[in-house]
Amino acid sequence: MSPHRWWDRTLVDKSQGQTRRLCCTVLASGSWESVVTSFMEELQSGLGDRGLTVSTRPEKGRCLFTTRNFNPGEVIISEEAYVSVPNNSGIEWRCDGCFSSSNLKKCSGCQVVWYCGSQCQKSEWKLHRLECGALSKLDEDRRKSVTPSMRLMLKLYLRRKLELDGIIPATSLSSYKLVEALVAHMSDIDEKQLVLYAQMANLVSLILQWSDSNIKEIAENFSRLACNAHTICDSELRPLGTGLYPVISIINHSCLPNAVLVFEGRSAVVHAVQHIPKDAEVLISYVETARSTMTRQKALKEQYFFTCKCPRCIKVGQFDDIQESATLEGYKCKNNGCDGFLLRDSDDKEFICQQCGLFRSKEEIKKIASEIKSLSDKALMYETSHNYQEAISTYKTIEKLQRKLCHNFSISLIETREKLLKMLMELEDWSEALHYCRLTIPVYKRLYPGLHPLLGLQYYTCGKLEWLLGDTDNAVKSLTNAVDVLRFTHGTGTPFMKDLLLKLEEAQAEASYKLSSKESEK
Ligand SMILES: C[S@@+](CC[C@H](N)C(=O)[O-])C[C@H]1O[C@@H](n2cnc3c(N)ncnc32)[C@H](O)[C@@H]1O
Fold it and tell me: Which Pfam family, just one, is annotated for this protein (predicted)?
């Protein structure tokens, strides 16, 4: 029997068996339908007070709809993580409670989990007491091989146990029932992935050492996590960990979203980024929106198993979509004064500028692209070994070549400039960092129109650099631009936003002091 058939049978048959087993557990009296109905009623009543409702659409499954108007910047919903883990790797660790990376001490019991102090340790103790017991029984090598994804799964099962034992209460908006209701896409994942989930499930079961643990169910939950868990980021959108937010996970995707998901500590907060009328679907983006339709659709299909039919995606193949893709991921016109986009000619031998008609040879493009490729491998090597001087000089050469090859609004060019900006900031070369930051602003404005956190954060970086360099007037302008976006995407009450507003006030005060000093000198 081929492994494929074996997996098909095991997972599908056991899945049905498991669904029945759970029904029986939940159903002391009444039918499965009545359990689902009462669970949905509870969820609807929990959401009703917030002006939200869940409805189901054949092509999307569950969807989150509004039952009132939401203004730009308004919080649509916020949710604590049902379970979460920091992205601890062999080189970087964070506190399990607040994800901070300072003053960490290892849990003396399991030697796996870190805390920044007794407050975080205490707040996590109910769950960690069980996890610590399980991890402590492992030998050192096995303990070291416990990945964040495996810990997330362990915590999921331990939280379910605490809920069943009545130690952590289940509520209408936070319960394992909501986790079970999340899509798992078991019939869509390929055999290789199934085998991987099964191997991970085996390890989780080995760590839990529960006589009734069900490998198939754990594997299915791994698949659930893959399309429902969120990367938890700090206010500047740097990834810190992973969390499962079962209510926010009801929100579907659009490449033209009307809402954005940000994090305040481990709490997930969804803000409206435009006026959302009553009876509209709340939509966030699951993928980087500044990509061509083909790239976005590929990413959505691979991880979430659907074809997006949002207003941007239905334009696929139309002239403006082709233009957008060729600008984002294509080449530039040979004529430096022209900002046209290139398409292949009918013989597929050359590229033709769609604005001025100038030809560009495929050979020339290939040559520059292969130079960039070999330099990129080198630059990455320098970067990962923290040899920033060499990395910067190599990325500068890449940037020069990309300016010859790619359209001014190309993603690869902006990615290189972003890398240079980050490394130059690391080396405290503020003036060069500002040079690259300023180059990214017009591109960000085009790539992220409207209220997008990445545009706001880029203005913020620009403003900080300008202020550090004593260019107070421009710092005020950039920080004002940052506030104009981020007060909608991040709200105004977070420590990050309070700090930004304070910085803006200080920059404004300094600018007016400088102005009055100049006037009194006259
Ligand atoms: C995080 S869940 C969203 C909630 C989901 N609709 C449910 O019923 O639980 C992600 C899954 O929802 C579906 N989905 C999300 N956005 C979609 C869209 N724009 N079109 C079709 N399906 C979508 C896909 O099946 C995807 O894997």
Answer: zf-MYND
